[in-house]
Design a protein that fits this description.
By secondary structure, this protein is α+β, with helices and mostly antiparallel strands. Helices cover about 40% and strands about 20% of the residues. A 3-stranded antiparallel β-sheet has the order 1-3-2.
């Protein structure tokens, strides 16, 4: 891992905000394989609101950073499917 908590083999786009980098670092550490995350649970881990996580995840959907992120479900909040990129 690099010093910012993101896997060293995964380039982190320079245009990500500090909040997006925190979310990406958390997801990279917590998703060694395909994993599902609720926005509210990610928010607790990165000291943000679920709304902030959701807004910032949209930017991560289109960035190249070593993870495939897909909006998955909406029951009791948004769920995200996160898989290491191949």
């Amino acid at each position: 891992m690099s010093t910012d908590g993101v896997m060293a083999s995964s380039p982190v786009p320079a245009d990500l905000s500090e909040k997006q980098r925190r979310i990406l670092a958390h997801l990279s550490e917590a998703a060694p394989a395909q994993t599902y995350f609720k926005s509210r649970l990610v928010a607790e881990e990165v000291d943000m609101t679920a709304k902030e996580v959701g807004a910032n995840m949209r930017a991560l959907l289109t960035s190249e950073h070593g993870l495939d992120i897909e909006k998955w479900g909406y029951s009791s909040g948004t769920t995200w499917k996160v898989t290491p990129a191949e």
